[in-house]
Amino acid sequence: MQKFRSLILPIAIVAGLFCHHWLAMAKPAVPFLIFLILLLNFSATEIKKLRFSPMHGWMLLFQAVVSLGLYFLLRMWDELLAQGVMVGVLSPVAASVVVIACMLGANRATITAYSLVGNFGIAILAPIYFSFIGTNVEMPFWDSFLLVLSKIGPTIVLPLLIIIVLQLVAPRVNAVIAKRKGWSFYLWGVALMITIGQAIDFIFLHGSGHWRSIAWLAVASLIGCAVQFGCGHLIGKRYGDRIAGGQGLGQRNTALAIWMSGMYLQPLASIFPATYSIWQNLYNSFQLWQHDRRAAEAATPTAPEPHSGCAQ
């Protein structure tokens, strides 16, 4: 099964594209899938060994500054595009980031720590930005903060608390769960399929007459995906974990970004995170294929050189 894992994400994307109407109805299952993904990944990490690095601060600062800077730059040309780019860059790191990053060789403790820092950091930043950007600027900060936190908290905090308790009082149970951590990749494939289906269904229902805006948002998301992964690789390389930096900054929680777009911004701004999800997972598939190919080449024994027949 491992030799086909680089195909899992493209298959999920294609299924989401062609079965969007039915998959969109499975939207309520996504938080439960994310919960299970995080439970499996947290179980494989010694929580007491989590360390927070300056790298985490630089990545969060990148999101805070670049998202707001691009919004004010692009709003002079197109408000919808500006909102889409902002929410796409501002959206927190994906729950699946530990799955993919560890498959690619990142340090599990480093990327797990950033999944916590990134999500809670954006839970604070997003309500501040939405207090003066979008359609709900009259919403009080604390109401907005608690609303965003209610979307992030249960899927992040609850599995973390469960694993902390298990590691302290029932380490054998935690070990049993940790042995199944490989399942998280396939659970993410299912969650991705549903998320893509939801996004495509939204485009079909509400995109009519807005194809030019949709095209601009899709192109901008492709550029944004390349820039965020590239900058993340540079930041991570400086701190000795290029993969963790790239995945932490490049892999976004597009499902939450789509929700934030619908809640606070012009709904069509969700096209940016929706198409971003496609680009990031195609890139993840390419990275997995490349990683597996290199691993296979390294495992193949080198053939001995033929004897020349010359006297020694």
Number of helices: 14
Number of strands: 0
Shape: globular
Total number of distinct structural domains = 1
CATH architecture: Up-down Bundle
N to C succession of SSEs: HHHHHHHHHHHHHH
The CATH topology is: Na+/H+ antiporter like fold
Mean pLDDT: 83
- Catalogue the unreliable spans: 305-312
Q: In percent, how much strand structure appears in the residues?
A: under 5%
* CATH C-level category: Mainly Alpha
Oligomeric state, counting identical vs distinct chains: single chain
Structural class: mainly alpha
Q: Whole-Å distance between the termini?
A: 48 Å
The description of the largest β-sheet is: none
Helix proportion:
over 70%
Q: Provide the gyration radius in Å.
A: 21 Å
Walk me through this protein's architecture:
This protein has about 300 residues and is an all-alpha fold. The protein has one domain: Na+/H+ antiporter like fold, CATH 1.20.1530.20. Helix content is about 75%, strand content about 0%. It is built from 14 helices and no strands. Helix 3 crosses helix 8. The longest helix has 29 residues. It is globular and about 55 Å long.
Overview in brief:
The chain is an all-alpha fold and 312 residues long. Helices cover 75% and strands 0% of the residues.
Q: Which terms would index this structure?
A:
mainly alpha, single chain, Na+/H+ antiporter like fold
Q: Secondary structure elements and their pairing?
A:
Elements: H1 5-18, H2 20-24, H3 30-43, H4 54-74, H5 79-90, H6 97-103, H7 108-130, H8 141-169, H9 171-178, H10 183-206, H11 211-238, H12 242-250, H13 254-264, H14 271-299
